[in-house]
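So, can you check this record?

>
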Amino acid sequence: MESKKRRGILERLNAGEVIVGDGGYVMQLERRGYVKAGHWTPEAAVEHPEAVRQLHREFLRAGANVIQTFTFYCSEDKLELSHVTGITGAQINEAACDLAREVANEGNALVAGGVSMTPCYAKSHSETEVKAIFKKQMDDFLKKDIDFFIAEFFDHVEEAVWAVEVLKTSGKTVGATLCISPHGDMKGVPPGECAVRLVKAGADIVGINCHLDPMTGVRTVKLMKEGLEKAGLKAHLMVQPLGFHTPECNHTGYLALPEFPFALETRAITRWDIHKYAREAYNAGIRYIGGCCGFEPYHIRAIAEELAAERGFLPPASEKHGLWGAALEMHTKPWVRARARREYWENLLPASGRPPSVFISCKHNK
């Protein structure tokens, strides 16, 4: 009965609703001790469901309208490559769907079944083999009560197109996001052309995710939007970028940083950076705004708070957060009380606190 009452993602977007996505899972769960770096596979959905459930709940409380299944890299070829034994892709996919649905129902959120790039594509470039992998994942999801699909984390538009073509056979809405820069995908296909190819393949929502910082992500989606407009095509726009500053990156994104993946804390985006990002994304016409690796629940709350007027409400997590530092008015120290205002936080230039601090990566320890 609940699923019949729930408005679908396209119904919400077509009505002009702002959709707030959730944040990053693999990196947060790695830091919490449930995911192995390098592998980045999601067996925690089976091994430690309580950890995945808790993170889902934190993103929901922070204001997310969509809970993505924790199924990143959940293809049999990736699991085999990562030496995951005793747990099948089907088991992970089904457990992840159940966890996402359980939590989404606590807040009338939607469940997005996620598929991502495959080792098979890089190894064989076989359309038949790659599509068979996506078909197997899709069939797992269709056994469960998911609302729509997201094909994400593709650095080659060709593979993303294959994913969209398979997922559209389900009859469900499909979003597709690429981890690309304004320069285009890894073969140099420009963002505008990438968007055109995805929409022609059947994608209803297009955009970017991961690899680069929020403002770079917004710039890339703007280029995708321009490409669609020139081609006379329409689609909803989506952005779920990295939660770290990456000013010196290009095609390869944060994977090329010396700090990846264990020393990225000094590059963390603040909640105030997220306010600027959310406003910039909204002004660009993007209506599905979330985050990927590095985005914690408080970042998602910042999106929800920045766009509270447009959405018409604040998330439950804002009950414990004074907007723009307002709760600091209660502080005993006058210099801290003076920070209880928007102007202070909007104009703050945070220090890294690390001696010495450099603007970009410094490879002095070779």
